[in-house]
Amino acid sequence: MAEVHNQLEIKFRLTDGSDIGPKAFPDATTVSALKETVISEWPREKENGPRTVKEVKLISAGKVLENSKTVKDYRSPVSNLVGAVTTMHVIIQPPVTEKEKKPKGDPKMNKCVCAVM
After folding, report:
1. Closest CA to 59 of 5, 13, 99
2. How far apart are CA 16 and CA 68, in angstroms?
């Protein structure tokens, strides 16, 4: 049972309340690899699934997880209990298109001009 301390059981909670997992991940697994797992195991019947790692945000214990960090960096003391499963919440943030980046309306209308007499 020594491998229990080197792995973390994780389930991914989607916004509709359904789950992916639980599945065991080694401590050295990066958050980016976790996101790739979410993308590959995304339920096919759900619309608007993520296509890239940049579209996926993972939240655990109130923290947005950074891609370069590992599972070990975010391990909590509770996860060391036998049979414990860590729940990570999945937020999908579609990429912003060029059309959405452009300001709406006339840019001159957004300026404020004051005159003191």
Report:
1. 13
2. 27
> pLDDT digit string (tens) for 66-92?
999 998 888 877 666 777 888 999 999
Confirm whether pTM is higher than 0.90. no
C-beta neighbour count of 35 within 10 angstroms? 23
Domain ranges of the chain: 7-92
Contact 67, 35 (CB under 8 A): yes
User: Is the pLDDT higher at 32 or at 76?
Assistant: 32
More confidently predicted of 60 and 111 = 60
Looking at the structure, give the CATH architecture of the domain made up of residues 7-92.
Roll (3.10)
